[in-house]
Write the structure tokens for this entry.
Amino acid sequence: MAADPLERLRQTLLEMHHSGRLSDIEPALYEGARAYVEKLKADYYGLPNPLESQSGSLLIEEIGSITETVQEIFAIRTRRILDLAFQQIEGQYFDRGEARKMLPAERAMYGQIIDAVEGCRETLIRGEEGSFQGGGAAAVDAIEEPDIPPAAGAGRPAPAAPRQPASPYALVHIRSDVESFMGVDGRVYVLTQGDIVTLPENNADVLCEHDIALNIRLNK
């Protein structure tokens, strides 16, 4: 993403709020945001003492802002795609020009929504379970321009991401307030005095070394 990616994301979100419609967005918006967050995480882990530095707190704040903004962009676009899907299912007028602004993954979702609603209607209203042949792909074709091929994999669910092995965790008692920080598991922790929480062992060890936390060693 270009310089000041958070500002660009916020500008995109503002335009979407004002228009109330699907708008053209950069195809690499989500990918660029993910890459930038990973860079910020690397910067955070590269600090000598991220828990105790102002730079660490600022990086955590920026990571949170970018993540929240991207989530809101996704939510607004998804709600609008749901509206378009129901308009097409009910035979109402819908703007094909607006529908063509879906990203490939959004078009796949659009087709799956139509398949699910039509299939449910066939079963519940017409009592014809299993008779529906799936019109989601045809619905996607209906919004395509003739010279634009359908998105690869449209109508098929995306493969699940492989699960990452869990990091060892430790149960600790927080003895004093601590600045928010990002654990080695990628989660942001906001802790206050008196909390009893499970933390990645590496982070728990650092807090215990600074007398901020007490490791609760159960059954030992």
